[in-house]
Amino acid sequence: MAPTSTPQTPFGRVLTAMVTPFTADGALDLDGAQRLATQLVDAGNDGLILNGTTGESPTTSNAEKSDLVRAVTEAVGERAHVVAGVGTNDTRHSIELAREAERAGAHGLLTVTPYYNKPPQEGLYRHFSAIADSTELPVMLYDIPGRSGVPINTETIVRLAEHPRIVANKDAKGDLGRAGWAIARSGLAWYSGDDMLNLPLLSIGAVGFVSVVGHVVTPELRAMLEAFTTGDVQKATEIHQQLLPVFTGMFRTQGVITTKAVLALRGQPGGPLRLPLVELSPEETAQLKLDLAAGGVEL
């Protein structure tokens, strides 16, 4: 059974886009995934995003994706929303992944903008609508033109919001002006998908975060959110400023790389990366340690 949700916060408020742990030989580590998921929920996450970019979805198979959803749902599904990334640049493949995620027990779906083939807005509309039509699960759009090459225009977001199962958007567009209009006009639950903009997006109507740095600072993110929602903007700003070195350090290179490095330093499940991603160099690891220390993170 999925945790309690509301139309305003269909997937909770603080979610971490979880890495996919692998064993030393590069195989899927389901035991590690269950342990990591439990640690993240214990730290204060309302939900976990699986099989997203941070989960190295481009290099995991359909079967691995389903097995991961099933294992994490078994571990934390009664306490947290388990949202499965099913986005690809092939609508038929995305529908297949969506149906498999539903069968594996996911509570919701994350659907990224199709990448590389650069569809027009009508293609985006039909793509997302077809995925939402394919299961009974609620859907979170994922707008990240820096990776996909194509933004979801505000008019398209407004059209998609009319679908009864499209209930939220993860915003990594980096455009507060467009975000403000889209929030006002669509009525979708808006989640920050860019940790550096978590607090600014709250100020224009976002309800929460889908975070990468949640692997290391979930309590601080929750404290910032709660301070803001209770009217203590000064405290929220202070926490945001405290975390700036963490936001910077975790994204000096690809976020999966730095996250798995931190997990290794902490002795938590994560394991190696799959090519084309590679581990941090010793110099990059030293810089990451300095960044985290400057943000108050102990390793």
Describe this structure in words.
- There is one protein chain.
- With 299 residues, the chain is α/β, with parallel strands linked by helices.
- It contains 12 helices and 8 strands.
- Strands 1-2-3-4-5-6-7-8 form an 8-stranded parallel β-barrel, surrounded by 5 helices.
- Helix 2 (62-76) links the parallel strand 2 and strand 3.
- Helix 2 runs parallel beside helix 3 (91-104), helix 3 runs parallel beside helix 4 and helix 9 runs antiparallel to helix 10 (233-250).
- The chain is globular, with a radius of gyration of 18 Å.
Span of the ends, CA to CA: 35 Å
Helix content bin: 40-55%
Low-confidence stretches: none
> Total strand count, please?
8
Order of helices and strands: EHEHEHEHEHHEHEHEHHHH
CA radius of gyration:
18 Å
Mean pLDDT: 97
Cross-sheet strand order for the largest sheet:
1-2-3-4-5-6-7-8
Q: How does the helix and strand content classify structurally?
A: alpha/beta
Q: What fraction of the residues are assigned to beta strands by DSSP?
A: 5-15%
Q: Sheet with the most strands?
A: 8 strands, parallel, barrel
User: Could you say which overall geometry the principal axes of the C-alpha atoms support?
Assistant: globular
